Amino acid sequence: MSIKTEAIKLFAAHTRRSIDRWRKTAVEDQLHIMNQLVAKAKYTRFGQDHDFSSIRTYEDFKNQVPIRDYEAIRPYINNILDGEKNVLWPGRPRYFAKTSGTTSGVKYIPLTDDSMPNHIVTARNAMMNYIDLAKKADIFKGKVIFLSGSPELEIKSGIPTGRLSGIVNHEIPSWVKTNQLPSYSTNIIEDWEEKLEKIVEETLHQDMRLISGIPPWVQMYYERILEKSGKNNIREVFPNYSLFMYGGVNFQPYRATLENLTGGPVDSIETFPASEGFIAFQDNLDSSGLLLNTRSGIFFEFIPVEEIGNKNPARYCLSEVETGKDYALIINNNAGLWGYSIGDCVRFVTVDPYRLIVSGRVSHYISAFGEHVIGKEVEEALLQTISGTSIKVVEFTVAPQVNPPQGGQPYHEWFIEFDQVPERVEDLEDQLDAQMCRQNIYYEDLIRGNILRKIKITPLQKDAFRQYMKSLGKLGGQNKVPRLANDRKIADILTDFRLD
Q1: Given 239, 269, 295, which residue is the final one in a domain?
Q2: Which of 147, 269, 339, 360 could form a cystine bridge with 213, CB 3.0-4.6 A?
Q3: Average pLDDT of the chain to the nearest whole number
Q4: Segments forming the whole domain that contains residue 433
Q5: Of 396, 468, 467, nearest to 428 (Cα)?
Q6: Which residues contact 111 (CB under 8 A, 6 or more apart)?
Q7: Are 233 and 381 found together in one domain?
Q8: What percent of the chain has pLDDT over 70?
């Protein structure tokens, strides 16, 4: 065994023991972090505007720090962009993570010297924890690939600015960089299809052992590798491939397709990274939930989904959450985000330890008729419907049809790209509708009350979703298709891709 492999093995064991310890002290750690954050930011502009000096308890914190979205924090970001220091956090940000929002346009999310370890160290911890659990310290004998955005950064008011995945590329430790692909020159290619071709060229004849990325874009990578190599599955191309790391979307809708392409199951680790912070990661090979990252510079709060939009919603710290309920995730962190809604909804599956799943986006729901259907429900309904069948779904999204062009009752329209369209789509509609009734009692009431008719499936042409994303300039990288929307903006475009 090489010195590097032996060192990784020892460090992985140390990391897992550390995670085992802080898993048990989550509540105490969270309150300690709240106090640390308030103390350090006391003399910033934000701290003075919100009288941080008077905060002693969580109740004080809630009274002094309101919940906010990007628009509410934008004036402080503008102060930073104007060159001011000590605005949201002491000093100036190390980077800005640039993201695009549906209502706020371009967002600049601060990353500081204090907050960068949250992103880098947490990713490392997730990997090391797996290595010790699976006893696979030899992963770094081969190559690893992170399918990410461009690491090329622009300078905004003296601050390097770019996509989070690109920024992280600059912070990857040297012992990983020696194994990392693709090359920098390939990674900065903006056009996804051109970039994919170069990635395939660079990795086709390498000893790939770890692949990381969003499932739909990893699927495209697999398909091109197989086309180029003429092999039957990925394992024939990369016989030592042993770990798939992913985040950003639910893996289950893609699992069957990806396992077919790889030639069988590959160990996988789910992560929950965001520009605002690395929220959670899978810490157990056998559990479905992700361990909340409670000792990494973020103080978490939770708002019940049904209270989103209320002037004074209920607001809970970690010790007050319950399993099985959906919460909007609020963070306060050591980059200066305070009472900040990141737009994701989570649901705890256990509280000892605190493990959660991502149940959807705050803005991604359907409630055209009061049903408030969320992403987790449509994904689960589809998975239950096709379980045990040969049906494979490439991608899908759902939208309400309030005024059906053919007349009659309104309905939910499912735009689905199948690997092969089922012979009787009508039967699938019946089964899927029944599953939706099981997932959401409000939807069931609307169906039983004849306010809605059962769902309608609109099969789409091959590559419909890729063409849609390409038309938006969002093909590849960290971009993903919304599972559902409360309007017809996406649906009206996808209608042009329906099968005749």
Answers
A1: 295
A2: 147
A3: 90
A4: 365-497
A5: 396
A6: 93, 94, 95, 96, 97, 119, 164, 167, 335
A7: no
A8: 97
